[in-house]
């Protein structure tokens, strides 16, 4: 079916049910950033596959709202004859709720599926619509019902995260959670985010590509835990171990009924940003609801000493793979047919040889020349192009290992490049170094540090549309909250043990994209009469291309940081390399 045919089918059913508009987000009932195919209704309808974007359908119009990371991708994937692109954050572009308030009439009804929206999202949306006397149907499932070829929820088995790598036992994690519950007098804590369930139970799965998670829910009480999952996903051995920790297994499909049956005297803890609205609506109205940031998200973000140690070892292995790839790329571009796809495949093959590698942490962004300017470019057979010994190549990739999840971006010159590219590259590097060397007081949030990465480029009237840093999981999701470094304030302080990306960039449409990304660890720096101060330790180990650097734009201190970083890269990776790769790495880490 074409997009137009799918829209016609949905609209016909909307008319029968008295719905004048519907909103279809990207995600699942666990509010995952990357859902399984079963949940990709939006993609099925309009063809857009980006990980951020909301489709809105009315009787006569349809629009997709997405942010600057996906403008170019949306323009290429959407049938703009029947779906209009609304560029979020651009001047005069309304939010979709405001747009609906403008195009609908008082008394009209908007349908959404409450399991796909957080409590916070629903509250904001319903208020905006109610202010314009527009009604809401929060049990709208027509779009999913129209998808007759919808894939089933995956039935892959769950596996244990090896005890040698886990930062804490299940019992220790549950005790930390219950300690907080006792303090807040909480009787029931619902955990619905897939990575949070996996972290608590020290289990992993393969239900979602690139993310080692599995479909399930947890309800943590003081004397037991109820684990909602399809039982056939568990081995007998895992089931026995769970039972030892008083974790009772129930059917995945029984979760909502169980929530409904919980006593009205219960006192729930929920995170309104990380819990879907239907869960909230299913709870007894008489029950108390304490709304706070997820306990698990905070505990999970503060990596333990054991996890940090394993992360360091993992990044040595990942760095070896990156060195092997970058040397291979330099040796073969121009002497054979290398494309964006084949380059990504080759990098994966180098990672696959590293200890514990269990897969990529996301689909590699392999962008040559103008494709590098598409922030979340997804190369496929139709878009794939050959790399030539000229211009810039951006590759953003990562791996999943028992000792950590990796995420790294390097931009390299494959030959001659424009003068402007050298200026842009150096400005990105300056921003990267400014964040890497930041020293800041306890209580600092990501929004306070974000300008450091942009200051150098702002002087030239240059900016980028994405955040500067995101948290990263420990053999879990490559994007992990609650911390971030971005212009928007999420109220989360950076704390010791948090690992975040450092990835400023510059993108020139149709020409090139530049991004330099390392992982950085927040740690204590110094205690003075003015309080505690923090700093970052750069964990990622991989050379930064010095051919693109315009040295006169660097300060003495910035050049010193780069030279020290490269010395660390060589010292830690060289013992893992053969002589050929060691010699190559020495040349790439020579002081400037």
UniProtKB/TrEMBL annotation:
GO terms for molecular function: metal ion binding; metalloaminopeptidase activity. Keywords: Aminopeptidase, Hydrolase, Metal-binding, Protease. Residues 533-592 form the Peptidase M24 C-terminal domain. Residues 10-132 form the Creatinase N-terminal domain. It comes from the Bacteria. CDD domains: APP (cd01085). GO terms for cellular component: cytoplasm. This is Xaa-Pro aminopeptidase. Residues 318-524 form the Peptidase M24 domain. Belongs to the peptidase M24B family. Pfam families: Creatinase_N (PF01321), Creatinase_N_2 (PF16189), Peptidase_M24 (PF00557), Peptidase_M24_C (PF16188). Signal peptide: none annotated.
